[in-house]
Design brief:
The chain is an all-alpha fold. It folds into two domains: about 1-50; about 55-104, no CATH class. The protein is built from three helices and no strands. It has helices at about 1-15, 25-50, 65-90. Helix 1 runs antiparallel to helix 2. It is elongated and about 70 Å long.
Length: about 100
């Protein structure tokens, strides 16, 4: 959040006071926002899983079996998402607007 805020603020100052915007600041702010939102969601999910609040495992007569089943399903889905995310990222050929570098 700090990187995103500083990049945006510096770009605004450069644009309005010096009439010369920082070319890469908007892109840095965008990628910082993507990373912040991704990591914060991961942290939230990890805390929920640690406290067993991501499922209704306590509603069953066999909470250990239900919890194990939910955990296995969660890991399986996470692995599928990671696999296809990796394939999609490896196939990406988009060039960034200002940095002229690949996003992979």
């Amino acid at each position: 959040m700090v990187v995103m805020s500083v990049a945006t603020f510096a770009n605004v100052v450069a644009r309005y006071f010096f009439n010369s915007p920082i070319q890469w600041a908007e892109e840095l702010a965008r990628y910082s926002f993507i990373w912040v939102s991704s990591w914060s969601r991961g942290v939230h999910q990890a805390k929920a899983a640690h406290r067993h609040r991501h499922s209704a495992a306590g509603a069953s007569r066999r909470p250990r079996v239900t919890r194990l089943l939910v955990d296995c399903c969660t890991v399986g889905i996470a692995l599928v998402i990671a696999y296809y995310g990796w394939k999609l990222t490896a196939a990406a050929t988009q060039i960034t607007a200002t940095c002229r570098c690949r996003t992979t």
